[in-house]
Amino acid sequence: MPKVFITRRISPEAIALLKQHAEVGAWQGEEALSREELFRNIADADGLVVWQDKIDGEFLDHAPKLKVAAQRAIGFDLIDIEECARRGVRVSNAPSGVDDSTADFAIALLLASARQLVEAVNTTMNGGWQRFGPMESPYLGHDVYEQTLGIVGLGRIGTKVARRARGFDMKILYHDIVRSPLEKELGVEYVPDLHKMLGMADYISIHVPLNNETRHLIGAREFAVMKPTAILVNSARGGLVDPKALYEALKSKKIHAAAIDVTEIEPIEPDDPLLTLDNIIIAPHIAGASALSRVKMDVLAAENVIAALAGKPMPSCVNCHLIK
């Protein structure tokens, strides 16, 4: 039987599925394996299930038998898919498991930031609840209903965010490199110019992959065209937003607030200046981390490995088109 190694703890359902088709080894520790320990474990692996593992030329040199590497998450920016393709290694991700969970969380961030929920709850928990006059409350937040939402990237998750935003009677604009065939169904308006859309939106939610073209997609120039009342939500990848420009925009009140689930360096450094601001919410990259979504992602990763080792089409291969 082929050998499959799992680099981090995953759902028992996925392990059970893999064991029907392969000899399975799995790292069960809470912390990730060291690079050296990882190399020892992948030496005879035909397939891998990975999470936040950097797969580059050095990694592949230590896995000469490798045929497939299944990422148990949407993002695969740590994997050199071109080098994998050159060596005949198929790479997959697990997009379907987290779409709804991430869309839910994006809306949660938007609402929490708009209504200053985190600050208000913290005040209450710290004994600071007072009777405020009708216009004296420090938590006179921004309404969401009937406001304008600008979605950057109307893919799987962006589409689900749009569906949820309709429940708040929001006007929904979107920018993408391609137009969506679902515009009429979703009730959204395409804006081909990113900067024009950013200037029209009260709320901006980012849902594009991180690559060389999209790194720091939102920077100083983009913040300059946003409304001073705008709120930025990022539940995609931290590298999509220039952190220095974000800090300056929030510090100088070029925009009203931000709510993010991702940072360029993760975990965020304790001395990161963003942590000194009172108009940002920073969650620890948990948008897709519901109990159900984790099982879905793990099972999809297992299904990708099983298909690849059997020479069958994979449910979500990201580099098969590059393999000759």
Short summary of the structure?
The protein is of the alpha/beta class and 324 residues long. Helix content is 33%, strand content 15%.
List the helices and strands and how they pair.
Elements: E1 3-6, H1 12-19, E2 23-26, H2 35-41, E3 47-50, H3 57-61, E4 68-71, H4 81-86, E5 90-92, H5 99-114, H6 117-125, E6 148-152, H7 156-166, E7 171-175, H8 183-186, E8 188-190, H9 194-200, E9 203-206, H10 220-225, E10 231-234, H11 243-251, E11 257-260, E12 280-282, H12 291-309
Parallel strand pairs: 1-2, 1-3, 3-4, 4-5, 6-7, 6-9, 7-8, 9-10, 10-11, 11-12
CATH homologous superfamily name of the largest domain? Answer: NAD(P)-binding Rossmann-like Domain
What value does the average pLDDT take?
96
What CATH first level of the largest domain would be assigned? Alpha Beta
CATH topology of the largest domain: Rossmann fold
Count of beta strands: 12
Task: Spell out the helices and strands N to C.
Answer: EHEHEHEHEHHEHEHEHEHEHEEH
Number of domains: 2
Please state the second-level CATH architecture of the largest domain: 3-Layer(aba) Sandwich
Shape: globular
- Structure annotation, total helices: 12
Query: Uncertain spans, ≥5 residues at pLDDT below 50?
Result: none
Relative strand content: 5-15%
The helix-and-strand class reads alpha/beta
Report, as a whole number of angstroms, the end-to-end distance. 26 Å
- Please describe the biggest sheet, giving its number of strands, its sense, and whether it closes into a barrel: 7 strands, parallel
